[in-house]
Specification:
- The structure is a single chain.
- This protein is of the alpha+beta class.
- The chain has two domains: 3-48; 60-136, Glutaredoxin.
- The chain has helices at residues 3-20, 25-35, 39-48, 68-71, 75-86, 128-136; strands at 60-65, 99-104, 116-118, 121-123.
- The chain has a four-stranded mixed β-sheet, covered by helices on one side.
- Helix 2 crosses helix 3 (39-48) and helix 5 runs parallel beside helix 6.
- The chain starts with a helix and ends with a helix.
- 20% of the residues are buried.
- Bound molecules: FE2/S2 (inorganic) cluster.
- FE2/S2 (inorganic) cluster (FES) binds at residues 65, 67, 69-70, 106-110, 113, 115.
Length: 139
């Protein structure tokens, strides 16, 4: 697949995700037909990008950084508190489809850890208590 096609694929995938919240199977099939590529190749390309989802996600996608700078600022304690509060492990979505939890690599605010992102909003210098407070306001 040419880089230009890949860029177009990503743009289309983001549009689909904006519509459905994820990229459904039928849309992957249609993308494969449009680009004359096997479904597996389209699926693989989409899976490569952590911000694209091929399964339904929660209304709130909670990303917690556990890279080294955040880890040195006790991100493991924040993560444990969030996991306990949401009763989720990384990659899981709550039964009520309110939250998806993801442990991720650096979110680009390394000097302000621990860092958590809820959908598009970034929270820095978190404590466990503040993280739970933020999540408790998500409805
Ligand atoms: S190490 Fe956590 S934001 Fe960079």
């Amino acid at each position: 697949m040419l880089q230009q096609d890949n860029d177009i694929l990503l743009e289309m995938a983001h549009d689909i995700q904006d519509t459905y919240g994820y990229i459904p199977e039928r849309e992957i099939t249609q993308l494969a037909e449009k680009f004359s590529e096997p479904r597996a190749k389209i699926y693989g390309a989409l899976e490569f990008y952590s911000m694209l989802y091929t399964e339904p996600t929660g209304k709130y996608i909670v990303r917690i950084c556990d890279s080294i700078s955040c880890f040195l600022h006790d991100s493991d304690e924040v993560l444990e508190a969030v996991q306990d509060y949401l009763e989720l492990e990384s990659g899981e979505t709550s039964d009520d489809k309110l939250f998806t939890l993801e442990v991720v690599e650096c979110l680009g605010h390394c000097g302000e850890g621990p860092v958590m992102m809820v959908n598009d909003r970034m929270y820095t210098e978190l404590t466990s208590g503040r993280a739970i407070e933020i999540l408790s306001e998500c409805q």
